[in-house]
Amino acid sequence: MSALKKLSPQAIPSALEKAERYRLLNEPAEAESICLDVLAVEAQNQKALVTLLLALTDRFTKGYMVSDTQAHEIAAQLKSEYERLYYGGIIFERKAKSKLEHASPESNYMAYDLLQEAMSHFERAEKIRPHGNDDALLRWNTCSRLIARNNLAAKAPDEREPYLE
After folding, report:
1. Is 155 helix (H, G, I), strand (E, B) or coil?
2. Cα–Cα distance between 143 and 149 in angstroms, integer?
3. Where are the beta strands (DSSP E) in the chain?
């Protein structure tokens, strides 16, 4: 790979606007690339971290084999506890939606567990949310509706006796 060109600090606000536009145009890889360029200049740029996290999670339902590990690592870098919880919930919610879209024999159970984890994050974020910010409540309600709409439930415990050798 050729050496990457470094973004000037003055170009960061414009670059972040472009990254957001690429996300809205359903081009998460381009948004991800721009965020990585910004983070190479300002490693703790919070807007770049959030946009990168969202760009990565945008790819969950696109059929890409994207792990949620990187998204969780990015969420851990957010300075605000509220944002760590809120975006952590977003990661779980989007992973659940990808399980529902790419159905497998256990996907409904996995989606349910992921949505429950998302809701737990949103509930904790709700308790410390900034005044007038009900985003965590809106996300919690979305998860609850997904569970109801898809008739999701926890997997019943396996009652069979273990096989002894």
Report:
1. coil
2. 10
3. none
